[in-house]
């Protein structure tokens, strides 16, 4: 029996309620939310929905992918007005989480699940787009290639001299900031593909 | 001959809420070893990391081993390094 019913859906937190209960990373999530630029073309698939579509999000406030990607869904819901979003804390809703495991094994988050009027799944988004994972890997390899003193990717950080480690930390923060527009656009594309199936 | 104290480094994901586990491990090492550790370095890092090195030996990695470091396992590594360094 599906765990997400109409009754269970209503037990979820609204996006604002989710933000209110965050104990860490709220500033970062809200900064990402504010910085996100949505074009009319990106909003169109969501604004064009004939009636609201229900979406759940599984999230936790310590997860970097939640901090990056939940704001995209939150902004789409707010601006398009056609996504009825509820957020469930993963670790308090493992029965829901275990219906949407990554590769059938991992409790990866965020998970966004879109439902039709009968709570049949229309589609889901898990963690981050593959294109973003590939881009992160590529940029990380390039970063280490261009900075031999950073050592090898995956090498324990504590073996680096502190000044080198600080430079690496700063470079990674800059990489993350630089990647955000691409990542956001890919997330919007992935979610648009799901709502594009709504009849 | 006096033992040469060893350095312990704990690299933890600062965004992930790993502070309690980090401080618990650091406290356990401080109470157990006193001056036999030369320093305990706490390194805030990213992406779910939790790594413990004793000297140059990576004793525990969440990526490699899963989960957080067992304090007894780290203590055993410290003792091993103290014997080698003596």
Topology, please?
The complex is a heterodimer of chains A (199) and B (86).
Chain A: H1 6-10, H2 15-21, H3 26-35, H4 40-47, E1 53-59, H5 64-80, E2 83-89, H6 94-97, E3 111-115, E4 121-126, H7 130-146, H8 162-195
Parallel strand pairs in A: 1-2
Antiparallel strand pairs in A: 1-3, 3-4
Chain B: E1 6-13, H1 19-33, E2 37-45, E3 50-54, E4 57-61, H2 62-65, H3 71-85
Can you walk me through this structure?
- The complex is a heterodimer of chains A (199) and B (86).
- Chain A has helices at 6-10, 15-21, 26-35, 40-47, 64-80, 94-97, 130-146, 162-195, and strands spanning 53-59, 83-89, 111-115, 121-126.
- The longest helix of chain A is centred in the C-terminal third of the chain and has 34 residues, at 162-195.
- Chain A is an alpha+beta fold and 199 residues long.
- Chain A is globular, with a radius of gyration of 18 Å.
- Helix content of chain A is 51%, strand content 13%.
- In chain A, α3 crosses α5 (64-80).
- Chain B is an alpha+beta fold.
- Chain B has helices at residues 19-33, 62-65, 71-85; strands at residues 6-13, 37-45, 50-54, 57-61.
- Chain B has a 4-stranded mixed sheet.
- In chain B, a hairpin with a 2-residue loop joins β3 and β4.
- The interface between A and B is medium-sized, with 15 and 18 residues.
